[in-house]
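Good morning,

Both structures are done.
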Amino acid sequence: MITRKAGTITITPMCESLEALRLMAWLSPGYPVGAYAYSHGLEWAAESGDVRDEASLAAWLADVCAHGALRNDLILAAHAHRAVSSGEPARIAAINDLALALAPSRELHLETSQQGRSFLDATLGAWPCDALTALAVQLSGPVAYPVAVGAAAGAHGMALPPLLAAYGLAFVQNLVSAALRAAPVGQAAGTRVIAALIPRLTRVAEAAGAADLDAIGSATVRLDLGSFRHETQYSRIFRS
């Protein structure tokens, strides 16, 4: 629950079970954001042979988590959450502009902006609240997915640490799902990869929650280049 007082937002603690269920709903494969349509460059990585089995998938995902888009997403989500929670919704536009500018290719820009717009619209329709409605005015155009998720969670008074951890897990689970369709990896192997990455996800989420925006950066050049090459890949089932 959120109340406003003297221009600030006061967050009243929610029932932990309710908050957990809301997170599960927002970040589930069934939420209408179209996450299943994107592979974040994984389809090209499988085509090129970078991802060819369980071990290479685990290594590829570990780099994305610690040195790529996921770390940046978590930092952006944390700052969007704080901007709303502290009663500074005007900061959201600047954070969103930065998030969109970070996309290194047309396909990855589409991946974040389409999911972000869809997430915000779906959440406004199913979980409306005054703070989120006011926020939508600041985000009337393209919205980066982590900004939409972080801002919506802040508007609903949800705690930040569980949000970041859940976002990270959903990110990895979606890419493992993509690997099951695009790479020679089975369900048992995919489950083992997720289990092995959870300690890393926890560390990345904790560090991202305390990081400044100046800490944003990535070192996944081959993935970024692959996202360009995916645009002309002969056979593909994903949009990125």
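Second structure follows.
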Amino acid sequence: MAGKKAAGAHQDAVASIVEDWARERPELDTAPLEVLARLHRTFLRYSTRLTTAIDRHGLSVAGFDVLTALRRAGAPYRLTAGQLADSGLVSSAGVTLRIDRLEKDGLIVRERDADDRRVVYSRLTDAGLAKVDEVFAEHLDNERRMLGGLTPAECRQLARLLSRLERSITDSDTDPGPAGAQGAPGGQ
């Protein structure tokens, strides 16, 4: 065991996983792990840092998503629950739970449409606008630190590749592939 640790000390965890599978099941092509297992592990680390940074401000990541969607909408910084859901958040019901919490915290208010009282908007309060501007600036600084090991050219290249990867994954939804190929990335 000590020899294995010393030999793998310069390899990342995914390289070790790939090496183990090559030894245990040499007939399998483990090339997808080189990308997707790294992506999964990277996402978990990113998610932990994001959550920690947002939590410091008394927000959940879900609440932060609502605040940023409202901020991106531009003045008067208001959207309906349906528009918030369409902006990439969860269902309208899930958005409503987030809105309830943000309203309780004084970061948003609900307003009825002047022309159609059935339409309800969520709007950033002055406190909500100040909070999202502060937290989002810190969020970008945090992301810049996380990308600090890459050059600007590498970041642009990675962004292009990740865009292509997202399209490839989305396109694969229509292709059932081999039976049983839907395993979770955590079980490498």
